[in-house]
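Incident log, structure service

09:12 report received: a user says their structure output differs between two submissions of the same chain.
09:20 pulled the input from the user's history:
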Amino acid sequence: MVKKSDVTKARLLEAATQEFATYGIAGARVDRIAVSASVNKNLIYVYFGNKEQLFDTVYAAAIEELLSAAPFDARDLPGYAGALFDFYRAHPHLLRLARWYGLERPGADALPVAQESTVAKLRELAAAQADGLVDAGMPAHALLTLVLVLAGAWSDGSPEGRTPDEDAALVSVRRHSVVVSVGRLTRPPGTRNGAVWEPAEISD
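09:34 re-ran on a clean worker, output below:
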């Protein structure tokens, strides 16, 4: 049986996710979160501590959601980038939370879940480079950064961003561009890229 407290916490986290993604840490209001979740404001402090701790919980949950939806595979970095592209489109709140974190906590260490994930990715990527499965022309940390940037190139809030008039064909072209670009960036020298550019027709 699901506890009432668990249901309440889930409602609070959902409301807090939208609040923080929209207004950031400083701009978020505990009163609005409580009203949106239809709970007593005091329960926020009981369950999560203060507003800063609530943000950390929200952000960590969003990262866990991403890690589950787009597991890292150094042997298939184009596929990983495509999965990230899909996740960013379906769940734009994660990148918004990440940007607020960077803006409002400059110089702060990443959350433990993010640190652990990054360390594991870099270890796996460096091993793939050593085995000749991935191009080793640049350090693993630089290569990983470029893969992440490419995957989020057309995400909500990026300079290019999502456009109001984009349709399924345009989204498909963008996703394919990300996958092909990451493939060309990461494939070892002397190997052929299996991805073939087949642009979809885009209506005016």
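09:41 both user submissions now match this output. Likely a transient worker issue. Closing.
09:42 reviewer note: Residues 21 and 97 are 5 Å apart (CA to CA). DSSP finds nine helices and no strands in the chain.
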